[in-house]
Amino acid sequence: METILKITNLNKIFNRKLHAVKNVSFEIKKGNVYGILGPNGSGKSTTLGIVLNVVNKTSGEFEWFEGKTSTHDALKKVGAIIERPNFYPYMSAKENLELVCKIKGTSFAKVDEKLELVGLLERKNDKFKTFSLGMKQRLAIASALLNDPEILILDEPTNGLDPQGIRQIRDIIRIIASQGTTILLASHLLDEVEKVCSHVVVLQKGVMLYQGSVHNMIENNSFFELKSANIQQLKEVLQNHASVEKLIEEEGRLLVYMKQEIAAQEINSYLFERNIVLEHLVKRKNSLEEQFLELTKN
Ligand code: ADP
Ligand code: MG
């Protein structure tokens, strides 16, 4: 799979003291939807700013399109929205996009197509100043897509929107992704990343805590919930199981985290052979939220 962007050991230190991005490395592959997830101040916008050449890196490397073109030329194939949408208030949606076409040197023919994609075709002759924040954000997405970029970069795309507006933006992101455009979005919202992204990079205070598929992040953290008449005995027996990573007692149940995937039957028969009969055995998965809280606990 083609690599769109490769970041290696990236660091950003503001004013010689604030280490906003610490040794971050990850790769963006063509066709996937990536989320950079982290609480406010974790370095998401700084990372995006660096790869878009609006923030200077302190050290490390980033490379667009496998280094085949200069960053300057590569950025012509990148559509990005990293600030609040800003257009001419007294011009219509269509006029604003045509102006962008002139600047980017693309054909006006794309204007209607992109307005339709973001659900604004019927409003194309209305002035920008009459738009809701959600509509402004959708117009910004249409604008970023005018030259059919390889990758669309969005920083907190649903910030400040009402639930309906959030839903519309997320649906649009999914449609754009389904058409083959790679997407990189930064968000502090777990459910946003869980709902729209295939891959996630978790940042906290500039440190990358996890990177991989959203599916694996959840899958790798399955655990068992067990209950038996004597929880102490249950604990002692499980402590001797080679695959057990940690045991947590919670409301009369024992939560068993494994070093590797193990079938429920295996745990059950292991305990039964050692004279423990379970009252309760459930295999559970952490939600991304639990996973995220676990990762960012310290
Ligand atoms: P996020 O987008 O994850 O909320 P940012 O990348 O905006 O985080 O910020 C990361 C850290 O860097 C924060 O502590 C922020 O205050 C600091 N920071 C961001 N931009 C600047 C700047 N221009 N000058 C100084 N500090 C900055
Ligand atoms: Mg930010």
Summarize the structure.
By secondary structure, this protein is of the alpha/beta class. It has helices spanning 44-51, 71-74, 93-104, 109-117, 133-144, 163-178, 190-196, 214-219, 231-239, 264-273, 288-295; strands at residues 3-14, 18-29, 33-37, 59-64, 78-81, 151-155, 182-187, 199-204, 207-213, 222-228, 244-250, 253-258, 278-285.
Mean pLDDT: 93
Identify the quaternary structure here. Answer: single chain
Query: pLDDT under 50 segments (min length 5)?
Result: none
Output the helix-strand order. Answer: EEEHEHEHHHEHEHEEHEHEEHEH
Tally the helices.
Answer: 11
Major sheet characteristics: 6 strands, mixed
The share of residues in extended strands comes to 25-35%
Q: What's the CATH class of the largest domain, please? A: Alpha Beta
